Amino acid sequence: MFSADLFANAVVSGLLLGGFYAAVAIGLAIVFGQLDIVNIAHPAFIIAGSYTAYIFNSTFGFDPVLVGVAAMPVFFAVGVAIYRIYYAAFERTGQESLSGLAFFFGLMFIIEVSLILVYGVDYRLVSAGYATGALSIGFVDLPGRMLVPFLVALALTGLIWLYLSRTFMGRAIQAVAQDRGALQLMGADPIRIKQWAFGIGIATAAVAGALLIIIGPVEPSVGRQYIGRAFAIVVLGGMGSIQGMLIAALLLGVVENMVATFYGPSWAPAVSFGILLLTLAFRPAGLFGR
Amino acid sequence: MRGWGFPAACAAVVVAGLAFTELADNPYYFNAAYVILQALIMAVAWNILGGFTGYVNFGSAAFFAVGAYTSIALLKAAAVPLPLLILAAALVCGLIGLGVGYLTLRLKGVYFAIATLAMGIVLETLINNWSYVGGAKGTAILTPDKHLWFDSYSEMLFMVMLLLALGSVAVSRTLSSSRLGRGLAAIRDDEVAAECSGVPTLRLKLVSTTVMGAMMGAAGAPYPYFVSYVDPLSAFNLFIAVNSIAMPMIGGTAHWAGPVVGALLVGSAQEVITVTISSELNVLLVGIMLVLFITLAPQGIVGLVRKHWKKRA
Amino acid sequence: MKLVRVSIALATAAFAGLAGAAEPIKIGFSMALTGALAGAGKGALIAMEIWRDDVNKKGGLLGRQVEFVYYDDATQPAKVPPIYTKLLNVDKVDLVVSSYGTNEIVPAMPIVMRSKMVFPSLFGLAANEEFKYDRYFQIMPAGPEPKLDWSRGFFELAAQQKPKPQTVAIVAADAEFALNAAAGARENAKKMGFKIVYDKTYPPATTDFTPIVRAIQATGPDIVYVGSYPPDSVGMVKAANEVGLKAKMFGGGMVGLQFAAIQKNLGPLLNNVVNYDFWVPEPTLNFPGVKEFLAKYQEAAKGKGVDPLGHYLPPFAYAYMQILGDAVQATKSLDQAKIADYFRKNTHDTVVGKVQFGKNGEWATSRVLMVQFRDVQPDNLEQFAGPGKRVVVYPKAWKSGDPVFPYKQ
Questions:
Q1: Which of B36, B69, C123, C333 qualifies as a cystine partner to B267, CB 3.0-4.6 A?
Q2: Nearest C-alpha in B relative to C181
Q3: For residue A276, what pLDDT is reported?
């Protein structure tokens, strides 16, 4: 059953899928990887992004990706507000590990159920011109439904990477991750910086959500499928390293699609999470850890 | 509650339970109570690791499911009686718990939580592909006709669950009030410091993960008889994991009574809402209660009550 | 004389009204109103409520008004046993019916069996296989051998084509219904002399289906049988188009392609797909009452977040209540043995046509239709309300057109 054309397609489609995974995980790479906040509700925010894209696409016919980008400031503001509550309730009192986790757990359910109450549990889909059809290069197919999310995800990852490494605020965020006290000595307010970073993390969910609903139908609880994957990617990528996250995402995508093509799709999740468990057990700093 | 208080209270509950099975003949109460008691055991078990040592287990549903599937595997092979099923499930899940305990050697805090989540998914995939126990399509288990002297099988299951629940509360209480418990609390407060001052942290953690696993497995063992149809999707239900975290958090994690209070309160509220309002509100309620309690009353209900008592005293 | 008759009729009606107000007949059930199956569950509830209102407008059953007692099982099997024990022992309902779907029906079986209630049930695939309960009646027209009948049409159609296809690929989601469908397909394929060249399952939480379709393509099957749930059905159809799947027949057991929202989104991608269905608005299936029912349903469904056309589940949800109501009226009692007897011995006229139950409580003869999507236009929901888009190609009795073969050149 092995052939060059199958192999090439498995790699390419895996890369496309991995690119999308990067968009899902990048918000967590900032929030969880750099700020150490276990935002298990991140996939729920992504679903909120999907519904935003769906609403504007179905009523006004706007392009889902554009809606996602346009919704970023709103998501940013929501993120800032949530961080404020989180800080006041947990971080200030040093209770973040256990209570913070439970807080986001609860938040996830509130988002999910609110969406259900308003929109029901029907699967929602968007229509976009590029979502049907595929580009063929030689014997390799690039379906638009996967290609567009891949490109958008790459652009998003690139921009965030540039932002974190080139701008003052970006460097401050990375500094906060390294050493909070030192920053305070320099006169910067770590809380303000962290809330900014948290806002950016949530803002990426708007775009990731738009990408998700381009790829396939969405209902309020599908976000749960991505909790494990997103955290796996961030951990594999070495916590907070954007390049590491991207490589881990692509790797996971390729591994899943290789298993699906050559062995049997039903084993794909066990293989990817098996890799995570092994990494955690033998190299907890992640494959690309600092 | 020193000395004879606790055993006496347990005995009273058992007698009350037996009297209940004699007096009430309405299966609904037994089935509803079963659901609450199951959640109670899960909450108490989760708290032995999560509350006492601070290690968060996201994979509670996996332990529960493995317990249920241990029963199914045995029942497919032979007509194994229920007590043996429970014992076997506790054994299997205790071993898995032991393995998870060794994970804590390398994984602290969040990493540990994610590892348990990943473990759950790997186990679910294994069960999905294991056709002997029904695989992904699930399997039907018929409840036996015999039910001792009870009027119905659901009454007997209720009594079994009640005993298991009392047992787990007793274990949890012993753990928390013994030297072991103080060691666990030391791990929660500062693991490195505890290690330095001679607390055998690994051994203590292994004890608590094993006990946690065994309890969750035991809670899952009678489940096939209760629903008579099990598939991986419902056995590995995220809601089980949510409840087992939310209930101790709402009740209070620091005290052994916390998860009991939380489970009784939240569990009963869920049962009532299921049959009265009958909507999404059930899940929403857990979410909102969880968020409100941990932001406004991080010590849980038990913590609030204790604070109140101290003020008066 | 005429006047007298009218007044008598009025008096009985008034009397019936009074009696009804005093003591309604309670019908209890659990329904998936939240969780994974809620979309369908809510649609079923709307249909059942239409039936209740229809009956009550005509004076109820046995002159008593009909009342529903129902609870949300949140698509969680563990919630079902407490619900049915409460219905039977606390609410003391007179009749019960099932929730939607195998996973929610089976947990109720032991409890319903213990109180010997008639159990009309809604879309459980071979749910009675283990229990063999003689008061279980399944409204889904899967037929006496549900697992086999489900895909028989697909393979018989394939076998009739010229040249006869030789090889088959079977792919299914890792979950109850899809795996049963695939198991049946495997057996049918072997029986009818096809060679199985690909036979794999995939986890329901799959994001990208192109690698699966490509792996199938690589084995070069003539026909492809898919057992899938709504999100994966969409993924499969899209992937098949993107990869350019060269099969001669594609489809079979894909749940979701019956729902209007998904049909609208997939549009022309659906063309020539052959898939199972139970009712479509083709002239051959225009049973008395179904049009009127759908008009009411479509009115009631507006803004409820359920299927706007309601062709798949709602007519059957109406029908299983209809038979139960008829049984009570005909036997003039709530005696479960008599009602069960009526279910067994009669042919029932419903909005989904004539229904007759066999020994195991399934339909005596299967009516799993194979429909082929034809001439579907992009982004248009209304086109599916009328005939011509989903042509019945199997079985002969209900056929409204011939299959287009092959699926893709």
A1: B36
A2: B137
A3: 79
Indicate the pTM of the whole model: 0.83
Q: Give the number of domains in chain B.
A: 1
Architecture of the domain spanning C2-143+288-355: 3-Layer(aba) Sandwich (3.40)
Amino acid code (one letter) for B311:
K
- Predicted confidence at residue B240, as pLDDT, reads 87
Residue A11 forms contact with C (CB below 8 Å): no
The 3-class secondary structure across A111-125, one letter per residue, is HHHHHHHHHCCCCEC
Contact (CB<8Å) B121/A273? yes
Over the stretch C187-208, which tens digit does the pLDDT of each residue have? 999 999 999 999 998 987 788 8
- Return the structure tokens found at C157: 């159609």
Task: Write out chain C residues lying below 8 Å of A217, CB-based.
Answer: 230-231, 234, 262, 265
Please compute the mean of the pLDDT values over residues C277-305 and round it to a whole number. Answer: 93
Instruction: Give the pLDDT band (50/70/90) at residue B299.
Output: confident
What residue segments make up the domains of chain A, in order of their start? 4-282
Cβ A106 vs Cβ B291: under 8 Å: yes
Residue C211, min C-alpha distance to chain A (Å): 5
What CATH number is given to the structural domain containing B87?
1.10.3470
pLDDT at A143: 87
Among B41-45, B282-286, C80-84, C116-120, where is mean pLDDT lowest?
Answer: B282-286
- Point out the residue among A17, A143, A260 whose CB comes nearest to the CB of C212: A260
pLDDT at A28: 93
Other residues' Cβ atoms within 10 Å of the Cβ of residue B36: 20
Angle between helices B27-53 and B201-220 (to 10 degrees): 170
What fold does the segment set A4-282 form as a domain? ABC transporter involved in vitamin B12 uptake, BtuC (1.10.3470)
Q: What is the CATH architecture assignment of C146-284+367-398? A: 3-Layer(aba) Sandwich (3.40)
Contact A54/B at CB under 8 A = no
ipTM above 0.85, yes or no: no
Contacts of C377 (CB under 8 A, 6+ apart): C267, C268, C383
State pLDDT tens for residues B74-126.
998 888 899 999 999 999 999 999 998 887 777 777 778 878 888 888 898 88
Q: Give B54→chain A minimum CA distance, Å.
A: 7
Spatial CA neighbour of C79 closest among C128, C28, C30: C30
Is the pLDDT assigned to residue A180 strictly greater than 70?
A: no
Spell out the residues 6+ positions from residue C350 whose beta carbon is closer than 8 angstroms to its own: C287, C289, C318, C319, C322, C323
- Interface touch C110/B35, C-beta < 8 Å: no
- From chain A, the residues in CB contact with C36 under 8 A are 121, 221
Question: Which chains border B (3 or more CB–CB pairs < 8 Å)?
Answer: A, C
In the stretch 98-117 of chain B, residues with CB closer than 8 A to chain A read: 103, 106-107, 109-111, 113-115, 117
Sign of CA dihedral C168, C169, C173, C175: positive
Touching check for B223 and chain C: CB below 8 Å? Answer: yes
pLDDT digits (tens, 9 = 90+) for C299-330: 999 888 788 999 999 999 999 999 999 999 99
Residue-range definition of the domain harbouring residue B33:
5-312
